[in-house]
Every structure is written in structure tokens, then in C-alpha cells.
Amino acid sequence: MKVLVVGGGGREHALCWAIAASPLLTQLWCAPGNAGIAEVAECVAIGAEDIAALVAFAREKSVDLVVAGPEAPLTLGLADACAAAGIKCFGPSAAAARLEASKAFTREVADAAGAPGARWARFEDAAAAKAHIRAQGAPIVVKADGLAAGKGVVVAATVAEAEAAIADIMESRIHGAAGATVLIEECLVGQEVSFFALCDGTTAIPLGAAQDHKRVGDGDTGPNTGGMGAYSPPPVFTDALRDAAMARIVTPVLAEMARRGTPFRGVLFAGLMITADGPRLIEFNVRFGDPECQALMVRLRSDLLPALLAACDGELANFDLRWEPVHALVVVMAAQGYPGAYAKGSEIRGLERAAQVPGVQVFHAGTARREDGALVAVGGRVLGVTATGATLAEARDAAYAAVDAIDWQGGFCRRDIGWRAL
User: Fold this and answer.
1) Which of 143, 421, 417 is nearest to 291 (CA)?
2) Cα 168 from Cα 123, distance rounded (Å)
3) How far apart are CA 251 and CA 246, in angstroms?
4) Secondary structure, 3-state, the chain
5) Distance (Å, rounded) from C-alpha 278 to C-alpha 31?
6) What does the alpha-carbon distance between residue 384 and residue 286 come to, in Å, rounded to a whole number?
7) In DSSP terms, which residues pair with 403 in a beta bridge?
């Protein structure tokens, strides 16, 4: 098979790494890719949101399967454009991708499906939103309705903090048009889990779970980021909770999407809060998480490629996935200043030493090669240092041993990934 992966971050490196191991593969491209992806796939200089160019390339090269990494190309209709060209695409249609593109749409679908979530209200007027916050009190959650690169949610501990979030999102438009509408939600209490299900439109099968670390600083302090680390499987997410999440949330939502004429195919990423009453839905994403994907891929024993194909072909009813009996943990190394302004171009050395730590795989995100061959940082999140171990503590120790082997003056990481479980 000829495969094109779309995207250029750590998630896409993990997907390319897993797909490259498949005996079904004959050729693998990634658009646009990064310096690490270039070691397992041929990188193509096409932006992840340039739908026309991606489809044209796929037709020219007789690509058998397009795999969408980030959400943006899906919401822009990559799967629809591929279908029109007769090319298989792993990922939902633009209509089904609204489960991520609009948090209000997700709440409407979840309510129709009877999936347990938070009480919520939608606002397009800032003054009305602030009045609602004052009436409800804190803690309370403020969400930009649209896509905000994982940074559009504020969990406000006080009414003043929530009102400031409304001012930022609706009045200052720090997330652009994504903040024209906001949701104000009940603040659910418990541990948050990222749960992934592979879907073919009618059938869903579990694809593992992880716990992410959103805040930039140790002890979950500082601003939200795209994710500073993750581990899998999370001890808090028992088999019984997984089964409950499938029965109460994923399966009913899949049925509701099919009933609406917009069946969901791809990976459904349910952000769950594990409460005293069981799992409740926080939000949906329509793609693999980043950095959760890195932790999942190093645990997956099954060949990823036929699993992606089965989702495209509606054949998941008789499909199952096998997992290595190991724990995985990923530490994200980011550029100094992230998630705010950060410098680009600092040199990274020592990845060969890091890769020699047993059980370690270093996934690249914001990296590039200089003309002299040196590896440099060109993004906010730059490396995902991933390790497996017989226990979570072993995986953590290996990951940080690899981090310490890397010589990068312009980078930093959290030193407490996995703290909830450990």
C-alpha cells in the first residue's frame, strides 16, 4: 500500500513510525512532516491545510490511503475531497468533524444521545455570558466554541477569572472567530482521561486511553498548552470504566451521528472526567491526541495499517487490537517561552545518546535540519521523549534518563509527568 500521512507534529511522527512497520506498506509520504519523520517517510512540502494540493498529490502518486493527523484538514473537508477523488481517507467528513469544530454541536449531539456530560449554556453576547457566570458562581468552565488549538478552555476558580476569560475570548478575540460563541459549563470534579475509540460509522472498538498534562509547569501550574506529557494506560481508568464509556458515551453518540446522516469514521477522542458517578463527557476531538498518540503507538502490538483500513471500510465489527503488556510515558520538550512567544533556531544535540536508553523512542514535533545537517528547534513543542517499561515508574525513569541525555540549551520540560498515578 501507498500511504500519505498529513501533518508535521509529534502525533504524525508516531503515526508514521507505526505505519512504517507494517508489512502491507510499500511507500510512505508525510506532508509536510519534520526532521524526525524524514527518517521513516518521504516528506512532501505541502501544508496540512492545503486540501487541493494534498488530493492532487495523492492522485498523482496513486495513494491508497490518506491518514489525517490534525483536526484542521478534517474540518476543512479533506476526507470529503478524498472521497470525491476515489481515495480512502482515515478521518471523518467535515460534517462529522463538527464534533471538534463546535463544542456546542458536541453538546447537542451528546444530549440527543443521552451521553452524560456537564450542564451547559451557549452565549453569543458577552454581557449575558458574564451575568450567567455571576448567577452560577465558581468554579466554572468557559469554552470558546470553535477550534483554538487546544487552548480555548478556561477552568475558572473565581467569578472574576471567568469574567476575564469572557473578555479575552469574546471581546479581545484572542482565539479569533472561534470565540464568537462561548459555552459556559458546570465544572466537573474528578480525574481527566483521554479515551480513544476506532470508529467505522456504525461500530466502535476501544483504542486505549491516556492521561495528559495540559499546564506548562510542574504541579499543574501555569497556562494551558497543547500538552506537556502523557502516560498510558492510566490506572484510574479501569476496564469497567472503559466499558461504561463505550456503552454510555461512544456507542450512543456514534448511533446519533449515523441517525443524522453524518456517520463518524476515524478515531473519536473522548475527553472524559472520571467522577463519582462514572465517566462524563467533557469534549470530543476527531483525531488522535498529541502527545497521547505517542504513548499509545509504542504500546500497540497490532499492525496499525489494517486497523485504519477496517475503519475506512466499515469492517470493525470483527476486528480487535492487541497491546503490549507495558506502560508508556512521554515527556514533551518545548522551547523556552512556550506556550507564549518562543525563539526558533536553537540547536539540539544528543538524540543518539537518548535513543540508546532501553525502551526509549524520541518523536519529533517542531524540528528541522539546517543546511549543515544540524537539528534545530522550529516550533513550540519540539520533542516527545517516549519510553516503555514493565511499570509506569520504570517508563518514567527511562524517559527522564533520555531527556537528561539530550543537550538542548533552548528547551525545557516538566519533571513530574505521571505524578497522578505515581
Assistant:
1) 417
2) 14
3) 6
4) CEEEEEECCHHHHHHHHHHHCCCCCCEEEEEECCCCHHHCCEECCCCCCCHHHHHHHHHHCCCCEEEECCHHHHHCCHHHHHHHCCCEEECCCCCCCHHHHCHHHHHHHHHHHCCCECCEEEECCHHHHHHHHHHHCCCEEEEECCCCCCCCEEEECCHHHHHHHHHHHHHCCCCHHHHCCEEEEECCCCEEEEEEEEEECCCEEEEEEEEECCEEECCCEEEECCCCEEEECCCCCCHHHHHHHHHHHHHHHHHHHHHCCCCCEEEEEEEEEEECCEEEEEEEECCCCCCHHHHHHCCECCCHHHHHHHHHHCCHHHCCCCECCCEEEEEEEEECCCCCCCCCCCEEECHHHHHCCCCEEEEECCEEECCCCCEEECCCEEEEEEEEECCHHHHHHHHHHHHHHCECCCEECCCCCCCCCC
5) 40
6) 21
7) none
Neighbouring C-beta atoms of residue 278, cutoff 10 Å: 16
The confidence band for 111, taking pLDDT boundaries of 50, 70 and 90, is very high
pTM value surpassing 0.90: yes
Residues 6+ apart with CB under 8 A from 131: none
- Residue 396 sits at the vertex; the CA angle it makes with 302 and 290, to the nearest 5 degrees, is 55
Name the band, by pLDDT with cuts 50, 70 and 90, for residue 146: confident
Tally of CB atoms within 10 A around 267? 25
**246-262 pLDDT, tens per residue?**
999 999 999 999 999 99
Sign of CA dihedral 54, 55, 58, 64: positive
HSE-CB at 342 with a 13 A cutoff on CA atoms is 21
What does DSSP say about strands 88-90 and 65-68: parallel, antiparallel, or unpaired?
Answer: parallel
φ/ψ (deg, to 5) at 196: -115, 135
What separation in angstroms does the CA of 59 have from each of 1, 81, 177? 14, 11, 33
Distance from C-alpha of 419 to C-alpha of 394, rounded to nearest angstrom: 13
Spell out the domains of the chain, with CATH numbers in brackets: 2-91 (3.40.50.20), 125-180 (3.30.1490.20), 191-318 (3.30.470.20), 327-412 (3.90.600.10)
Summarised one tens digit per residue, pLDDT across range 292-348 is: 999 999 999 999 999 999 999 999 998 999 999 999 999 999 999 999 999 999 999
Which residue type, as a one-letter code, is found at position 358? P
